Amino acid sequence: MDVLSDAVSAMRSGVPYSGRVDLTGRWGLRFAPSSGAAFHVILQGTSWLLSPATEPTLLSAGDVLFLPHGGRHAIASDPAAPLADVIQSPSGQWTIAEEPSPSTGVTTSMLCGSYMLSRARAHPLMTGLPDVIHVPARVDDRIALRDAVSLLGRELEHRNPGVDALVPALLESLLVYILRAWFHDNAALATSGWAAALADPVLADALEAMHEDPAHPWTVQELGARAGVSRAAFARRFTAVVGRTPLAYLTWWRMTISSRLLASSDAPLRRIAERSGYSSEFAFAKAFKREFQVSPGSYRRQHQPRSATA
Predict the structure, then answer these.
(1) Which of 57, 134, 162, 173 has the smallest set of CB atoms within 10 Å of its CB?
(2) Does the pLDDT at position 308 exceed 60?
(3) Percent of the chain with pLDDT over 90
(4) CATH classification of 200-310, choosing from 1.10.10.60, 3.40.50.150, 2.60.40.10, 1.10.10.10?
């Protein structure tokens, strides 16, 4: 898998949710902080984003909002509109505590949804995102993002056979397209962080190599040689942009992979050690305990569902 796909997969912990909302006249919806990530897509009309992280922002048809850290926010017909609380269930579904009274006027249609994400081992690509990502509608590009929004809107509006299979897949696609758009827009301006790393051919190649084959005994010299730069130059560049040395990042990613395997499978420790780049169970267990302060076996017992270990 590529770096962006791996970063999303590392945090995914449940099925995403989305619903269509049609509101007329004067209205406001207040969303409490959540452990996952929230998104809104304006299908028709206009509305305002009200968030402590930014100034009130006017949203138009086709605009996409993504709140990767699940921060408190509101969407309203105008900045002074009264707000009704939106309650999120453990599964991620949102319901309005008190439905707005019937009204006349302009109708705003939105897709509102959430992604269930675990922050226990969050990839820095995701944790480094801003509190609010606003992707304005554009006529000249982002065709794939617009297509994903259009397909999702039609499925939620008409509820044809197979909708329950299609919607989660479309929501996963929407998340990737949102992240692509943000990284593309910020790559030229960033000098450090993951937007800069993914746009840097030298660093992107090294990161892809580590994610494609984390078990390989990578060295700093080998990673630099792939891009035709010296060991020292590559190490300085990687550390300055990513914020960790190449081998520190590789170890972190290997431990992330192994912790996911321990929590989600019954694979023997020997196999997990091999997939994580360790030649022996002993070396793997020592590295794992240094990272998590518990042995691999204890971690598995603590994090794997009882049904999986029964």
Answers:
(1) 162
(2) no
(3) 56
(4) 1.10.10.60
